[in-house]
Amino acid sequence: MASPFVWASGKKGPQRRDSTNSNSQDMDETKNIRMVLRYDGTRFHGWQSQAEDSTIQDLMEEKIRLILNEPVRLMAAGRTDAGVHALYQVCHFHTRSRLNPESLRRGLNSLLPPDIFISRAEYVSTDFHSRYSATYKVYEYRILNRPEPDPFTRYYSWHIPSSLDLPEMNKCLSLLIGEHDFSSFMSSGSSVRSPIRRMMKAEIRSPGAGLLFFEFQADGFLRHMVRNIVGTVVEAGKGRCDSVKFLEIIQARDRRLAGAKAPAQGLFLKMVYYEGERGFVLGEESASESLTDA
């Protein structure tokens, strides 16, 4: 399929009309700008705007307003919670400004703090939506599984000193593959119409030094879904349940039966995919390598 983010003419970005008033019309033409960024979520109260707390959305909208001299509203692919990080977050906004996206990107990076970096900005079609146009997303959760903690990874992993049964944990994860009702792993406060999601990947890899990387790829995620799954799978790793019990938890569609929610600091939004595109900015390899050994 062709990418939905290229204009009808095949050119990226808005086009001039053939008229004597083309300059004034261009100034009035609404444009849609997509940006990819990565951030350390440690000191933020998540992505989504809040009345009093510091969020990534509020900070970015403030800096964009300073540059473009107009209010904007950012929409993101994933509304990460407080303390959650992003290797590959996608957001977009509409504007009438004629400032080109690359100049905007450079200006924003000069104003933003060092724990936020915009890797790319570009024009996309006006109907593109960072969240609703996404075909699937990838989240990664990191555990440091060894007796001694690491002061340098405490904000980027969950330290579990006791040994874990990895084969049993992988058995549990394999049960998540396919289309399921994930109500047992959805926290309260969610307003989604349906708790059914399709999971394409759920696995653990161990690069060494006690690190465990969980990777989840699905067409959508419910509120706290990844953290609730990880917390439950860790219970299996500690011998407090097994894959048979885990399947019962899935089928029960009851959050009360699942394990406690894993801490926020181990979670990373790793990649967002769109129709006709594969990692259009960083590429899969770059996104997965960033902070891999942290």
How much helix is in the residues?
Answer: 10-25%
User: What is the tally of beta strands?
Assistant: 10
Rg of Cα set: 21 Å
**Would you state the CATH class of the largest domain?**
Alpha Beta
Question: How are the SSEs placed, and which strands pair?
Answer:
Elements: H1 22-28, E1 31-39, H2 56-68, E2 75-76, E3 85-95, H3 101-111, E4 116-124, E5 134-144, E6 158-159, H4 166-174, E7 178-181, E8 196-208, E9 211-218, H5 225-237, H6 243-252, E10 267-274, H7 283-289
Parallel strand pairs: 3-10, 5-6
Antiparallel strand pairs: 1-3, 1-4, 2-3, 5-9, 5-10, 7-8, 8-9
Helix pairs in contact: 2-3, 4-5, 4-6
General description of the model:
The protein is of the alpha+beta class and 294 residues long. The chain folds into two domains: 22-124, Alpha-Beta Plaits, CATH 3.30.70.580; 135-275, Alpha-Beta Plaits (2-Layer Sandwich), CATH 3.30.70.660. The chain is 24% helix and 26% strand. It has seven helices and ten strands. It has helices at 22-28, 56-68, 101-111, 166-174, 225-237, 243-252, 283-289, and strands at 31-39, 75-76, 85-95, 116-124, 134-144, 158-159, 178-181, 196-208, 211-218, 267-274. Strands 1, 2, 3, 4, 5, 6, 7, 8, 9 and 10 form a ten-stranded mixed beta sheet that branches. Strand 2 and strand 3 (85-95) form a beta hairpin. The chain is globular. The protein starts with 21 loop residues before the first helix and ends in a 5-residue tail after the last helix.
Primary descriptors:
Alpha-Beta Plaits; disordered N terminus; 7 helices; 2 domains; alpha+beta; 10 strands
